[in-house]
Write a sequence for this structure.
């Protein structure tokens, strides 16, 4: 596999905050990545530095082996429409697509037209009069129809209803199958996008805390459910990242893949194994990391942080 | 180069900003000025009439210069346009539209001479001391003035984008204080007469070339500011 993006020790400091903290990772060609994390974790900052829209305080970014800043060769192969993208005053969606067509060598107009239909986007209304969902649709259409070799989607679903979101996921996969490219999808709706993702990068407080294959992540933990005493006996000596109890029943999330011997033991003890959703696992590990750092209990964090992650 | 020319098309995709609104502003100012001239002439006033109405589209160029940056720059970044391509393409757009405006002014002045001020000695496009220097020089002058307005707007907007409104205000106030200080200094030296004599000696060509210098300085500093601006 070839890396199309390589990032080494990337740091971005704003006056009083560290938005990105010594981050290193690589993105391989023609795969779909999830850049996951809470609001303000640094997702947009990382993407805008990769596309040379923003500047690193220190560290190195290579895209297609080159520096992206002021580099037409590299930039013309990337597309990044940010979540809060600004458009020219009085431009309509039709104008915006006409402009995008000028700069993306692989722009596909029939695809754009089809997506306009799919999202029922009014193309003659000025962009500043569009609803939040329609605004997101404009960004999504530019991202998909540009067919850029590296395409970033920054929280692309904001304001889109469930039907429109499904259209986006379906079209993305369809077009990806016929025109493979590298896709980086930033999201905090982790479960909704988890089926699309081949690999996840989780960013928390400016640091990458997980960089793994989606399947491997799913196997990393399991929920053990059953009689509290039996659950406690089983999880003894394992790393527990979450625990819930109701009466005499406990549900405990443990890290580590279960061996066949483990499964036999669970069956014998009458305990159930429930899969952990990607979102749950990420929420729990994020809290776990935060909890260890600040010394607060994971249970306290659960109520506040789960809500914030939405 | 191709992408730089595409920036011109990007700026012109919405023809309203660069073409229709300036023409409406110019046409509106022209119609209003002529109507006022007609009222004055109808009242039996003699002598040539001049108005400042032709300035109107120039002020609009200031606004266009600001909008070219604040509204189009962020989108150009989403379209993976480099800052250099955006900058060159935008200045080229300004040059093209300023040239169109200059041609309109020169043609308007020609018509005014031919009709002796629309038959009522009323002058809109003609500025005597400029128009008398010949059409080419007058055209150059109008072109430079339009570019100057555009670049002032564009430069202010880059400073705003890069450093924020507080620094833009500080810089503008600073320039104002500097200007007053220079005026005070000229007064102290009792040199106002010499200053005006010098300006008079420059002629239209000289003033236009000084304008080109100011445009170049502002444009260059706008580029240096834009190089590190974030959309």
């Amino acid at each position: 596999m070839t890396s199309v993006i390589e990032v080494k020790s990337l740091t971005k400091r704003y006056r009083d905050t560290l938005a990105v903290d010594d981050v290193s990772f690589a993105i391989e060609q023609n795969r779909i990545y999830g850049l996951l994390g809470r609001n303000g974790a640094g997702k947009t900052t990382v993407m805008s530095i990769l596309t040379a829209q923003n500047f690193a305080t220190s560290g190195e970014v290579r895209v297609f082996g080159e520096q992206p800043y002021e580099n037409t060769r590299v930039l013309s192969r990337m597309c990044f429409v940010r979540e809060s993208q600004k458009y020219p005053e009085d431009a309509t969606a039709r104008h915006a697509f006409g402009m995008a067509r000028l700069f993306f060598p692989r722009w596909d107009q029939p695809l754009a037209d089809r997506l306009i239909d799919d999202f029922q986007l009014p193309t003659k209304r000025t962009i500043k009069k569009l609803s939040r969902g329609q605004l997101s649709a404009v960004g999504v259409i530019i991202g998909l129809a540009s067919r850029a070799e590296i395409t970033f989607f920054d929280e692309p679903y904001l304001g889109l209803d469930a039907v429109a979101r499904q259209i986006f996921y379906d079209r993305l996969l369809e077009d990806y199958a016929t025109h493979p490219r590298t896709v980086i999808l930033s999201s905090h709706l982790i479960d909704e996008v988890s089926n699309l993702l081949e690999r996840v990068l989780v960013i928390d407080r400016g640091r990458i805390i997980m960089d793994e294959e989606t399947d491997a992540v799913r196997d990393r933990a399991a929920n053990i459910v059953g009689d509290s005493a039996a659950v406690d006996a089983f999880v003894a000596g394992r790393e527990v990242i979450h625990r819930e109890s109701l009466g005499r029943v406990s549900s405990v999330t443990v890290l580590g893949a279960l061996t066949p011997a483990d499964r036999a033991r669970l069956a014998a003890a009458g305990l159930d194994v429930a899969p952990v959703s990607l979102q749950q696992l990420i929420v729990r590990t994020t809290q776990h990391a935060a909890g260890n750092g600040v010394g607060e209990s994971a249970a306290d964090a659960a109520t506040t942080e789960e809500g914030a992650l939405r | 180069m191709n992408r730089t020319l595409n920036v011109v098309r990007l700026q012109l995709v919405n023809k309203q900003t660069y073409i229709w609104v300036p023409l409406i502003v110019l046409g509106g100012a022209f119609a209003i000025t002529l109507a006022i001239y007609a009222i004055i002439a109808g009242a039996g006033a003699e002598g040539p009439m001049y108005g400042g109405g032709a300035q109107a589209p120039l002020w609009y160029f200031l606004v266009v210069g600001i909008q070219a940056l604040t509204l189009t720059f962020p989108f150009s970044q989403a379209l993976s346009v480099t800052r250099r391509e955006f900058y060159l393409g935008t200045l080229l757009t300004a040059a093209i539209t300023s040239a169109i405006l200059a041609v309109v002014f020169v043609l308007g002045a020609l018509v005014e001479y031919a009709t002796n001020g629309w038959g009522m000695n009323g002058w809109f496009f003609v500025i005597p001391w400029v128009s008398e220097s010949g059409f080419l020089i007058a055209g150059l002058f109008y072109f430079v003035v339009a570019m100057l307005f555009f670049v002032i707007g564009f430069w202010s907007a880059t400073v705003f984008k890069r450093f924020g409104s507080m620094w833009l205000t500080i810089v503008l106030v600073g320039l104002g204080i500097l200007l007053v200080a220079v005026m005070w200094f000229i007064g102290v030296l009792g040199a106002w007469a010499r200053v005006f004599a010098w300006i008079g000696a420059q002629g239209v060509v000289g003033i236009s070339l000084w304008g080109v210098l100011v445009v170049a300085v502002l444009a260059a500093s706008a580029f240096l500011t834009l190089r590190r601006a974030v959309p």
